[in-house]
Write a structure and sequence with these properties.
The complex is a heterodimer. Chain A is mainly alpha-helical. Chain A is built from 13 helices and two strands. A two-stranded antiparallel sheet of chain A has the order 1-2. The longest helix of chain B is centred in the N-terminal third of the chain and has 23 residues, at 7-29. In chain B, β1 (51-55), α3 (71-80) and β2 (83-87) form a beta-alpha-beta unit. The relative contact order of chain B is 0.17. The chains are: A mainly alpha, B alpha/beta.
Chain lengths: 287, 388
């Protein structure tokens, strides 16, 4: 019998791809092209001229090294905390949530109905020097008497963790929810202890969710500047703050553009290393 | 930098936003024919367009809370039969400039006839140098005679060919006497008093922060040299390193001061008038060594209708109109005679020295050096200072 279905030929796949590709071309590739050109230009605002100034890159790295490192540190710590907090939460919702699953998920994303800026400003009030939280922390001795939380690294990291938490919870939930419970039952039937079944079955099967969650949290966190600006001091400023001020205040577009590229490259490298460690081929298959 | 809103006001205003943006249009539609007569008396060849677009800072124009319309603007539209599209889309000099810089540098219009930017940001002077501004049409602007004489000849626009003040404000020290444990009138005290460690903020606007510290050093902020600039930066650097300075802020110092998270800070006069309404204990002073003064200027971006914009400026330079605006805005009025009108309608405002400063106060404020504002080296140094 002849096969009734065959691979579509000719233009159809490309036609279907074209809206997305067109969108990316206009709103990603073209701006990137201008950004690349600017990053290799020199001169004073507004007369920048393109002259292959690779020096912009070495200058911006050496000048803002500490902010780069700080961005990586804060984003990594925030991602780790978010993972530690989200995994049990997502696990509980997926395995124990029952018919309330959707409600719990809704509660996780509910803060997102409020804009990012307002949520961060709310933390300014929550962590206020004379507020309830800080007084409590002082009473239990976690904060020195007369000490503060606002305008410290802890506040910035807490803010970042909070703001990106749902990006961690949702992918984790999706991967945990897909796990076939019979596999865990089979493992315990074969005399695996509960922790062992978790380590051998649940955890490996949830890795795609961990991978996606870590990326979705780490990448925006590394480029964030709102939390450092509102909850931190100049000593907490991240690379995002530098890029913002180079663009808007100093108006040194070449430096700002080269900083953006360095940030993108650094994130890309970190992501590749991370993917290598977790093993991407397996992840892409099961995701 | 002049936005003087508290967060509550911003939210309140944001909710109303949708409603009042559409209103001027409706009102203009029933504006009527009396308008045309008024225009025909001025330069014959000039006619007003159907719409004038005016971009300004939030909470910077009188508003009728009930109808969410701007009474002085409604009156203008009635009289001249022209629709004014009033946008409150300037929240920050640098950010707004970033928005219009692209089209202007390509020789494109930005769809606005009038914008308002602060002199101490250096941007108005910059835009003149770049040729990005239209000249005022002074034939349509006889009321320019009401401009405060002290404002008539800024270094960056000596004859006011391209700019006209909208409001001014002073920068000084805002503080809570209860928390400070007394009064604070010296910048050095603010930067070194151990009682205030971690409890003060400075401003991200370099003209204000550098200017105040320069004055405290006994240097002249209106003539910046490398030596005096570096001296001021070094002094601030020391206070940052020691942990004395908690943050550099825009006008978000206001809630911090109100909550008691900070005890004292560099603060803008107009903000303090509004803060004091809810927190009467707070005080604002010009430091002994002198404060700073800045002015928000109306400018006509290239491609805007200079005649129409000038007619609108002329309207706001009538003392009785300026008085109406002032009664709501609470910054410093640049129009001579507005205080006399207010003395009858709202004497409390007319007598408030933060709104109509005394001669002694005006003698104790400096304008920041216009040239230093566009010195990239200085800008970088300051950004490094506040950026770690």
């Amino acid at each position: 019998m002849r096969r009734r279905f065959h691979r579509p030929k000719g233009a159809i796949p490309y036609l279907l791809l074209s809206p997305g590709m067109g969108w990316l071309l206009v709103f990603f590739v073209v701006p990137m092209w201008y950004l690349a050109k600017t990053s290799l230009s020199s001169g004073l605002f507004p007369l920048f001229s393109f002259d292959w100034s690779f020096g912009n890159f070495s200058d911006s790295i050496s000048q803002y090294q500490s902010q780069f490192i700080r961005s990586g540190e804060y984003a990594a710590i925030a991602t780790a905390i978010a993972l530690a907090v989200s995994y049990p939460l997502a696990y509980w919702i997926a395995f124990r949530g029952g018919r309330w699953k959707n409600l719990f998920l809704l509660l996780v994303i509910a803060p997102f109905f409020v804009t990012y800026l307002i949520r961060t400003l709310a933390w300014e009030t929550i962590l206020s020097d004379n507020g309830l939280v800080v007084r409590l922390l002082r009473d239990v001795g976690l904060v020195a008497p007369g000490g503060r939380v606002l305008a410290t690294s802890a506040a910035v990291i807490a803010g970042i963790t909070y703001n990106f938490l749902p990006f961690m919870v949702l992918p984790l939930y999706v991967s945990l929810e897909q796990i076939d419970h019979r596999l865990i039952e089979a493992a315990t039937d074969l005399y695996a202890s509960k922790p062992k079944a978790f380590m051998r079955i649940t955890l490996p099967l949830s890795l795609p969710g961990v991978f996606a969650g870590v990326l979705l949290t780490f990448i925006p966190a590394a480029g964030d500047f709102i939390n450092a600006q509102l909850l931190g001091t100049p000593r907490q400023y991240m690379i995002g703050n530098v890029i913002q001020s180079e663009f808007l205040s100093v108006r040194d577009y070449p430096t700002a553009a080269s900083l953006s590229f360095v940030l993108m490259a650094a994130i890309l490298v970190l992501v590749l290393i991370f993917a290598r460690i977790l093993g991407t081929d397996r992840l892409t298959v099961s995701a | 930098m002049t936005q003087s809103l508290t967060r509550d006001e911003l939210l309140r205003r944001g909710l109303a936003g949708g409603a009042f943006l559409t209103l001027p249009g409706l009102l203009a539609a029933c504006g009527g024919s009396s308008a045309k007569k008024a225009t025909s008396t001025t330069a014959a060849a000039q006619t007003l367009p159907r719409t004038i677009t005016f971009s300004n800072w939030p909470l910077y124009l009188d508003i009728d809370e009930k109808t969410k319309t701007h009474p002085t603007l409604v009156a203008f539209q009635k009289r001249y039969g022209v629709k004014v599209k009033y946008l409150e889309d300037i929240n920050d000099n640098d950010t707004f400039f970033g928005k219009i810089e692209g089209p202007l540098s390509q020789g494109q219009k930005i769809g606005r006839d009038l914008i308002v930017l602060t002199d101490s940001s250096g941007l108005p002077g910059r835009m003149i140098d770049l040729g990005w501004l239209e000249k005022l049409d002074k034939s349509a602007l006889p009321n320019i005679k009401n401009l405060q004489p002290t404002q008539a000849h800024p270094a960056w626009d000596p004859n006011r060919d391209y700019s006209l003040p909208w409001q001014s404000g002073m920068t000084g020290i805002g503080y809570d006497p209860k928390l400070v444990g007394g009064d604070i009138t010296s910048v050095d005290d603010l930067l070194t008093n151990p009682k205030l460690k971690g409890k003060i903020t400075l401003l991200t606007e370099r003209a204000d922060t550098i200017g105040l510290v320069m004055a405290a050093n006994g240097d002249d902020p209106s003539h910046v040299t490398d030596a005096t600039f570096n001296k001021a930066v070094a002094k601030i650097q020391k206070a940052v390193k020691s942990g004395q300075v908690r943050q550099f802020t825009g006008n978000d110092y206001a809630p911090l001061l109100a909550k008691g998270d900070i005890y004292a800070c560099f603060a803008w006069s107009g903000d303090m008038v509004q803060l004091q309404a809810d927190h009467p204990g707070l005080k604002w002073v010009l430091p002994d060594s002198g404060g700073m003064i800045w002015t928000d200027n109306m400018l006509i971006p290239k491609g805007g209708n200079a005649y129409a914009a000038s007619v609108l400026m002329n309207w706001y330079y009538r003392p009785e109109i300026a008085a109406q605006v002032e009664d709501y805005v609470n910054y410093i009025c640049p129009v001579v005679g507005a205080d006399k009108v207010l003395l009858k309608t709202d004497p409390a405002v007319a007598k408030n020295p933060l709104i109509f400063p005394t001669k002694a106060m005006l003698a104790n404020v400096h304008q920041f050096d216009a040239k230093a504002l566009n010195n990239t080296d200085y800008t970088k140094k300051f950004q490094h200072l506040i950026g770690g």
